[in-house]
Amino acid sequence: MNPRELEKKTDRKAGEQAAELVTKAQERVEKVAAEVREQAAEPLAEVLGRVEMAYAAYMDAEREVAKAYKANEQQMEKSYKEAEQQANSTCEQTIAQALRVSEGAEQQTEKAYQKAKEQAEETSRRTKEQIKRTYDENVRQALMVRQETIEQAWATRTEAIERAWKIFSKEKK
Questions:
Q1: Dihedral of the CA atoms 53, 55, 57, 61 (nearest 10)?
Q2: Quick count: other Cβ atoms within 10 Å of Cβ 53?
Q3: Digit-coded pLDDT (tens) for 97-119
Q4: Measured between alpha carbons, how far is residue 9 from residues 2, 18, 93, 94 in Å?
Q5: pLDDT tier for residue 48 given thresholds of 50, 70 and 90
Q6: Which of 18, 57, 122, 125 could link 65 by a cystine bridge, Cβ 3.0 to 4.6 Å?
Q7: Residue 86, CA distances (Å) to 47, 95, 149 in order
Q8: Mean pLDDT of 35-45
Q9: What is the rounded distance in angstroms from the CA atom of residue 112 to the CA atom of residue 118?
Q10: Nearest-CA neighbor of 82 among 10, 18, 160, 146?
């Protein structure tokens, strides 16, 4: 039951109690008044005594009503304090849960960052190795092509010189 419902229920009870007490007091006063009317002939002192008793009963009823209102006020104060304490407890629990969720998300983010960093480093290492292998292969091929070209050029040179000497030697003869 929420605090407002409890407050309404408590107010309703207090109001009912107060109304009941006032009704009883009025009934007593009416009863005494009826008796006074019936016994109008009775001595004035006796009537005055009854009126004083009726007034005393009325005052007692008024005090009981005040007590009921005071009890109602205390009950409402207690209900308020309980609701306030429950709200504080719920708030603290919610904040603690939010902190746990935040810390968990932060840890997961850090793990994901570290994993991504490791993967990036591994990819970078592999890429560098591949670049080095490609470079080495290109250099090897270039050296091989150069060597073959030099050898072909040397062979062509040698062949051209031999032909030139053959032609030169035939002309001299």
A1: -170
A2: 13
A3: 999 999 999 999 999 999 999 99
A4: 11, 14, 29, 30
A5: confident
A6: 18
A7: 58, 14, 92
A8: 64
A9: 10
A10: 10
